[in-house]
Amino acid sequence: MRTALTRIAALLPGRADLAEMRRDPRRDLLAGLTVAIVALPLALGFGVSSGLGAEAGLATAVVAGALAALFGGSNLQVSGPTGAMTVVLVPIVGEYGPGGVLTVGLMAGVMLVALAALRAGKYMQYVPAPVVEGFTLGIACVIGLQQIPNALGVPKPEGDRVLPVTWRAIEEFAEAPNWTAVGLAVAVAAVMLAGARWRPTVPFSIVAVIAATLVAQAAGLDAAQPIGDLPSGLPAPSLSFLDLGSLGTLLAPAVAVAALAALESLLSASVADGMTVGQQHDPDRELFGQGLANIAAPLFGGVPATGAIARTAVNVRTGASSRLAALTHAAILAVIVFAAAPLVSKIPLAALAGVLLATAIRMVEVGSLRSMAKATRSDALILILTAVATLALDLVYAVIIG
Questions:
Q1: Enclosing H/E stretch for 287
Q2: What gap in Å lies between CA 191 and CA 198, rounded to an integer?
Q3: Is residue 65 part of a domain?
Q4: What 8-state DSSP symbol labels residue 76?
Q5: Alpha helices in 176-232 (DSSP H)
Q6: DSSP state of 328
Q7: Which residues lie across from 307 on neighbouring strands?
Q8: Which domain holds residue 320?
């Protein structure tokens, strides 16, 4: 019992964490504001893509973002809904419905806490680099393809396999083209990609989304379908979605979600360490924090969360030095949920599709892929195999195969 209590105490925040947060609060607050601006359109977009709606993405960014920042093992990690997790959730929504996704998220959170107690975090470092690169390339392709229906302004066809769904969306567009949606999506993606090369520190995603929303409202573009009504606040925590009779059938999806959350979060924390000097994350504490975040997020209607590499990188680049920055990001998103829901609800879905298309393109590091493909034939083969498996099967199978 004493050993167990000692182990639990080691996973909880300590005085050193609080001391870090007091060191340079002004810089952390500014970094948190910047990350929140970047995270808002991503949270909305990934919520829509998951099938649970924009409000689920915001709830995840607020609840999971705050808990993972407070209890996680990295001072610089930013957590929330991500593209990789969305890819896993779409087929779960199709088969089990929204309640199944919330149940899977809660089960995955419990599994992550158990992994932290078993000190399993250190084993994630053994995932080979070609598998990670292939995994990232495959995810980028899937995220891009998932945005095609909204970018074309057509209702999302039925199905959970991204390639058939994309093809049917293109067929529907060919029958009744919606050039308004296409124009908004392409414009937002182009502004983001060009802006990132011109001024990397400026959050062009929010600039592009605001501009697209103003244009759509001013011109009365009915074809630019908005997000729709959002609740002005987080719902009260509830376990009403939990169906105890379905826990057995949801076990396999929950294992997949937990494995992905562990892998992506620890990879993201490692990236943050590599971008700084003197920072070193605790992998078991990171699993513990992500576990608590995923237990809590479904209670508020949120989807499963992980550490987000892009948002974490923005956090580091804008000068964050402690977990206060990630906590600030969650707090600012919470204020937006409560104070600006009517404005956010007017954002066109095509604009969010443009944000995620640009995000998918920026995920692909061409130089890294080229150098790894040239390194050895086996590295190139594993990279391609993992990417194709990610596109054709699902993410966890792809990592295992790779």
A1: helix 283-296
A2: 10
A3: yes
A4: S
A5: 179-198, 204-219
A6: H
A7: 79
A8: 26-227+241-401
